[in-house]
Amino acid sequence: GVYNAFILGSADYAAMDDVTGKPGYEHMQHNGVRAFMCVPVTNAGLFWGTLMVDECRGPRKWNSSEIHLLQLIASVLSGAITRGATEDALVRMSSLVEYAPQYIAYNNEEGNFEYVNPGLSQMTGFTYEELMEGGMRLLFNEDTYKLIVNKYIPLVQERGSGQFELPYMTK
């Protein structure tokens, strides 16, 4: 049926010019529907549901402009659904980072912090303001700082992320 075509990904839309007497469409006929057109709605690329329009006055031949318009509306709807789900996930992840007792930070190539979570203040005794102003130089001796800037930051840039343990100074 219609849903299987969308779930399997083989159909961009489904339309029927006249459902009268067609097996499997009795529920539509019972509600006065004579013709319909529907398109898939997705969430992050996965089938989420359908967007459907119907005609109750009589049979109808759907033209390509109508099909494209419904597909466009479904695309906007899909984007909004995906964006909402992504925003919800980001809020959850942000709270995990914010309340983590570990040191989680984002810094630029010069070793200045762009973001630090409260866990770093708790670990080191430095205030948020001191950390933002002093950067990584505040936390590491000169040799460790050079190792970070010359080895670890380029490694993180190459890989996209990184995790390592280093001795740090406290207040």
Quick gist of this model?
The chain is built from 6 helices and 5 strands; from the N terminus they run αβαββαββααα.
Helices and strands, with pairings:
Elements lengths: L1 H6 L6 E3 L9 H5 L4 E9 L2 E10 L8 H36 L5 E3 L5 E4 L1 H7 L3 H7 L7 H18 L12
Antiparallel strand pairs: 1-2, 2-3, 4-5
Indicate the multimeric state.
Answer: single chain
Mean pLDDT: 89
- Strand line-up in the sheet with most strands: 1-2-3
- CA-based gyration radius: 28 Å
Percentage of residues in DSSP E strands: 15-25%
SS-based class: alpha+beta
Q: What is the N-to-C order of secondary-structure elements (H for helix, E for strand)?
A: HEHEEHEEHHH
Low-confidence stretches: none
- Give the % helix: 40-55%
Question: How would you sum up the major sheet?
Answer: 3 strands, antiparallel
| Terminus-to-terminus distance | 67 Å
Q: How many helical elements?
A: 6
Give the tally of β-strands.
Answer: 5
Report the principal-axis shape.
rod-shaped
Describe the structure.
The chain has 171 residues and is of the alpha+beta class. It has helices at residues 2-7, 26-30, 64-99, 118-124, 128-134, 142-159; strands at residues 14-16, 35-43, 46-55, 105-107, 113-116. The strands form 2 sheets. The chain has a 3-stranded antiparallel beta sheet. It has a two-stranded antiparallel ribbon with strand order 4-5. Strand 4 (105-107) and strand 5 form a beta hairpin. It is rod-shaped. It starts with a helix and ends in a 12-residue tail after the last helix. The model has no long low-confidence stretch (mean pLDDT 89).
Which terms summarize this structure?
single chain; 171 residues; alpha+beta; three-stranded antiparallel sheet; 5 strands; rod-shaped
